[in-house]
Design brief:
Elements lengths: L10 H6 L4 H14 L1 H12 L8 E6 L2 E6 L2 E2 L1 H5 L12 E6 L5 E5 H17 L7 E5 L4 H13 L2 E4 L6 H11 L3 E5 L2 E3 L2 E3 L1 H9 L8 E5 L13 E3 H4 L12 E2 L5 E5 L7 E5 L2 H15 L6 E4 L6 H13 L3 E5 L10 H9 L3 E4 L1 H10 L2 H4 L8 E5 L5 H11 L6 E4 L33 E4 L11 E6 L9 E2 L3 H9 L6 E9 L5 E6 L3 E4 L2 E4 H9 L4 E11 L3 E10 L6 H15 L8 E4 L13 H10 L12 H13 L1
Parallel strand pairs: 4-17, 6-7, 6-8, 8-11, 11-12, 16-17, 16-18, 18-19, 19-20, 29-30
Antiparallel strand pairs: 1-2, 3-13, 4-5, 9-10, 14-15, 15-23, 21-22, 22-24, 24-25, 26-27, 28-29
Helix pairs in contact: 2-3, 5-6, 7-8, 10-11, 13-15, 19-20
The structure holds 5'-O-[(S)-ethoxy(hydroxy)phosphoryl]adenosine.
Length: 644
């Protein structure tokens, strides 16, 4: 194995960092491990505002955790109101840039005003704590306004990524039984309009009886039909808005949001997050990992529809009183230097993006970043998938000019906050490693029986102890929560990831061990894709696997057998790709669809995805095939590849 380079933090960075040197990190980690209640209790008291203090920090009835029991707080209050009595009152909370170059800056005072106004609009529509809102919007400041207005009243929100189809939106509306859908007429993406309101109409067309109101923000100005009695323009309702809508004191465990994510079955899981514990850990990791300073301009270039957007575009930065940049459009539009240009324009100090984006920029070529100084950058972050060392080195050298530490952050929708990542003023970096766990996080790498595997061995990544921002359950499905996360390794949280720890205690995340794929940092479930494919009238069976891809990390390959019929196979392949876009969203379209005569199965009828994975990865099958029902299926699939 070639020597892995180590990048210690520069003395200059360390001298200004909140947590300095490995001793600083280790002391914090040890205290959180040995005295968790005192550790989190002190932080909750110092870092958050509470209407009523909790009676005790932590309650654990495995696998159900409660944090800050009996405490009353409000996320919107913590993100807004408490800054208004400080110098942050007129500080930029959000700097927004539209894809076409429009700009808006909202100070904390202004954002507070907009949130109060919109909260009163929701109140006037009869919504109250415990109700649910679906937010299906583009990346406009109002998406944050809508989230914070819901949080202000205790309306549990579920943001649905604007790239999801009407079909995917409908299943989320139904599962959540949302009373209101907040949307836009459309969103801009690569100069084209994504017609969001049209998708809402299609989604609500059938079997969504819970929805009483649809509130539509005008963004693109395109013509949208409005259904009388159900649909309202945001700006029309705003006419009667009130500016001092108080934040409702909510139980620390109140469900702030539900975010649907792909799991191992066909139906997405509604990951339910809390109020107090969630916000505290998101805020603390924001400070620890990004070494956030008052004067920083911080930019997380994710979409707010994913958990990264929730925790590190909206709630984390605003709770910390930071300036967060929100960019509406595609990162390479109109040209591949959009991100670099934007960094110079707003003098961004911290950039947080995904390995897929970085790999796409590498392909575009160094001439694009070379046009811009990017001298303001002092820290870079990576999230969503393993970052390969060569992409890490490029990011470090070409974007960070060798001066900016890179924080590779491992976490999940379920964990709410960053779990494994370096504190940049404390931890020497190794490209491709998330380094060490955050305070309060006790990860371990174990074998099938749950025994620790020891250094440099691969195993399952589990987490031993509950943490404040942990998911509380799956929305109205405790069974699923228990089965998915707490049954595989008794007493521990099962992440679904494989990992390895090196001799220095550094964690290396290797990827999923379950039927979840990671394409461009988006989580996709093989089962969900397969269920979508078999809903097509021509399809008899489908098996989906991921193959390694140099830009997107993984790419979707679908093996499909057809029902009897006279199909035009070429046209059908394209039609099936479009079908998946319609059923889930275009980001889920298979890169390749292979029509085959049969699928490899065990004698009990289970599709052997492992073999298909081997076919798409190595084009040969080396694994054990003795349980295969029909060995010929495999040979013909491998041969089919050779023909292509
Ligand atoms: C993967 C995104 C390696 C992992 C925040 C995890 C990573 C899944 C990293 C969660 C990383 C995320 N290094 N792998 N830094 N970050 N992953 O729920 O497989 O969209 O289980 O949350 O992404 O994806 P999710």
């Amino acid at each position: 194995m070639s020597e892995i380079p180590v990048y210690p933090p520069s003395p200059d960075f360390v001298s200004k960092a909140h947590v300095q040197g490995l001793e600083g990190y280790r002391a914090l980690y040890a205290r959180a491990k040995e005295h968790p209640e005192e550790f989190w209790g002190e932080l909750a008291e110092r870092e958050l505002f509470w209407f009523e203090k909790w009676s005790h920090v932590f309650e654990w009835n495995p696998p159900y955790a409660k944090w800050f029991v009996g405490g009353k707080t409000n996320v919107s209050y913590n993100c807004l109101d408490r800054h208004l009595t400080t110098a942050r009152k007129n500080k930029a909370a959000i700097i927004w840039e539209g894809e076409a170059g429009e700009q808006r800056t909202l100070t904390y005072q202004e954002l507070h005003r907009l949130v109060c106004r919109f909260a009163s609009v929701l109140e006037h529509r009869g919504l109250k704590a415990g109700d649910r809102a679906i937010i299906y919007m583009g990346m406009v400041p109002e998406v944050a306004v809508a989230m914070l207005a819901c949080a202000r009243l205790g309306i549990t929100h579920s943001v649905v990524f604007g790239g999801f189809s009407a079909e995917a939106l409908r299943t989320r509306v139904q599962d959540l039984e949302a009373q209101v859908v907040i949307t836009c007429d459309g969103a801009w993406r690569r100069g084209k309009e994504v017609r969001l309101k049209a998708a809402v109409d299609e989604a609500l067309g059938a079997d969504c009886p819970s929805v009483r109101d649809v509130i539509v923000l005008q963004r693109t100005g395109s013509d949208v039909p409005m259904q009388a009695g159900r649909d309202w323009w945001w700006h029309a309702l705003d006419q009667d808005a009130r500016e001092n809508t108080p934040a409702v004191p909510l139980d620390g465990e109140h469900p702030l949001y539900v975010l649907y994510t792909s799991g191992t079955t066909g139906k997405p899981k509604g990951i339910q997050h809390s109020t107090g514990g969630y916000l505290l850990q998101v805020l603390m990791t924001m400070k620890w990992v990004f070494d956030l300073k008052e004067e920083d301009t911080y930019w997380c270039a994710a979409d707010v529809g994913w958990v990264t957007g929730h925790s590190y575009i909206v709630y984390g930065p605003l709770a910390a009183g930071a300036t967060t940049v929100i960019y509406e459009g595609a990162p390479d539009f109109p040209q591949p230097d959009r991100l670099w240009r934007t960094i110079d324009k707003y003098q961004v100090n911290i950039l947080y993006t995904s390995p897929t984006a970085i790999r796409a920029f590498i392909k575009h070529g160094d001439q694009w970043p070379a046009k811009h100084s990017m001298a303001s950058l002092r820290l870079l972050g990576s999230v969503g998938e393993p970052i390969n060392p060569s992409a890490w080195e490029w990011y470090h050298r070409v974007i960070g000019k060798g001066r900016c530490p890179i924080v590779d952050t491992w976490w999940q929708t379920e964990t709410g906050a960053i779990m494994i990542a370096p504190m940049p003023g404390a931890v020497p970096l190794k490209p491709g490693s998330g380094t060490f766990p955050m305070p309060g996080v006790l990860p371990e790498i174990v074998d099938y029986e749950g025994n620790p595997v020891g250094p440099n061995r691969e195993g399952f990544l589990i987490i031993r102890r509950p943490w404040p921002s942990m998911l509380r359950t799956c929305w109205r499905d405790d069974q699923r929560y228990e089965d998915n996360y707490w049954s595989r390794m008794p007493g521990a949280y099962f992440t679904g990831d494989a990992a390895r720890m090196d001799e220095d205690g550094y964690f290396w995340i290797l990827g999923r061990v379950d039927d979840v794929m990671n394409v461009s940092g988006h989580r996709l479930s093989t089962m969900e894709l397969e269920s979508a494919l078999v809903r097509h009238p021509a399809v008899a069976e489908a098996a989906v696997v991921g193959r390694p891809h140099e830009v997107t990390g993984q790419a979707v390959v679908a093996f499909v057998t057809l029902k009897k019929g006279d199909w035009n196979r070429e046209e059908l392949v394209e039609e099936l790709r479009q079908w998946v876009a319609k059923e889930i969203g275009s980001f889920a379209k298979p890169e390749q669809i292979r029509l085959t005569d049969g699928l490899p199965k065990t004698r009990s009828g289970k599709i052997m995805r492992r073999l298909l994975r081997e076919i798409v990865t190595s084009h040969t099958v080396v694994g054990d095939v003795t349980t295969l029902e029909d060995i010929n299926v495999i040979t013909s699939l491998a041969a089919q590849h050779d023909d292509e």
